[in-house]
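Long-time lurker, finally posting.

We've been working with HD domain-containing protein (Paraliobacillus quinghaiensis) and I want a structural starting point before designing mutants. I don't trust myself to interpret raw outputs, so I'm hoping someone here can both generate the structure tokens and explain anything notable. Sequence follows.
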Amino acid sequence: MSDNASYFYKFIPISYSITSEQKKDILNSFPLPDLPEGETSFNIQDEQQGNRVSERLLLNDFEVKLTKNGKQYLRLSFSNNIGMIQAKMWDNQGEIEQHLPSLEKFSVFDIEGTVDSFRGHKSITINQLRSCEEEINPFSFLPYTQQNLEDLTTELFAYIYELSSPYQDISLAIMRHFWNDFRLAPAAKGFHHNYLGGLLKHTVGLMRFARYVTKFEDNHIQATIKLISVVEKAYKNELWTGFTQEQEHVSPIVWKDTIDHLYHMLHGMMQYKDAAPQHDLLITSILFHDIGKLLEYDHAGKSFEAFKFLYPTADLSNIQNRKQAGISMDPLGVMVGHIPYGAMLLTKIIETEKITIGIEKIHEMTHCILCHHGLPEWGSCVRQPQSVEGYLIHIVDYLDSRYENTEKIK
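Top reply, 14 upvotes:
Generated this for you. Predicted structure of HD domain-containing protein:
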């Protein structure tokens, strides 16, 4: 089967070949998550002030606050698969103290209340709050990608099947170990790909950019210049649109302060202009670049298999009993971060699967993972990239994370 489409303002061709039998095998080996069908989710933006609502929602966090008069009230944050919903609850007859134990213990609540609006921001004042003991389908309570997960999954493995050994062996091994978490994971808590399925979509996006550079253009420097030219045009369009639109309808400017950075990275990469990018090494590095987010973030439905894999002798009882809710930073994972975790998972999967690969290649892939944020002040673990693949993985990550905020269907 051949799929032909485009990406990045219709500039990057999406073209891969895969047979119907291969697609069937992919989806059997790496099944899709169960999405809610026929469910209509509550959207607070569709409600008028004063409307009474009764909904089942996922509790993200809560905090006891004090009014100016020193009275307690609860400030709560809920979510469903439309988005975040802010709420408050007044302390009538000591209700806050009564609810605190269930708020600490449970994740899903039935709420009844009234819609409020203040300066265009809508919230709910809760009158009744009841905990629910039920198994959570995270796709019913958290935002998730609206793009076709079957297509994204097929495309990801079509690119993996293009790889030669040992890169294909490494990539398939890590997916066999962590597919159930990978297909679910967000790529961020905010800013970009901050929804279930975001990591899958972001990873495929980087691979699209990388394949354009290595397979559709003869020269990686020229290819990068062409990508920057697309950004320059998009930025001009953003500025013009902002100038001509009514102030209240102006869209956020995505490409502000990006072009100088892209040219700075291009200049650094030019010292490797005679080094042809290693396609298989780059694609494998992309697969691992954000996979550490399986440990760095926490959310409903996440397993702790990655912790078990990296720390097989550790006592995990404390985290296995943890209450999970909306997308948040994992209290353990944030101490290490997704970049070191990605390098650790790469080393561990090679060791566990007994995959033979040159030590130079392991270091080159590890370097790509460690430098994909580009600059130390942005979280890069090295001062600057030291290979053409290191520069490219940062550039394509930088482009995809920002481009995602221009797409209407995420």
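Before you design anything, note these points.
The chain is about 45% helix and 15% strand.
The chain has a mean pLDDT of 92.
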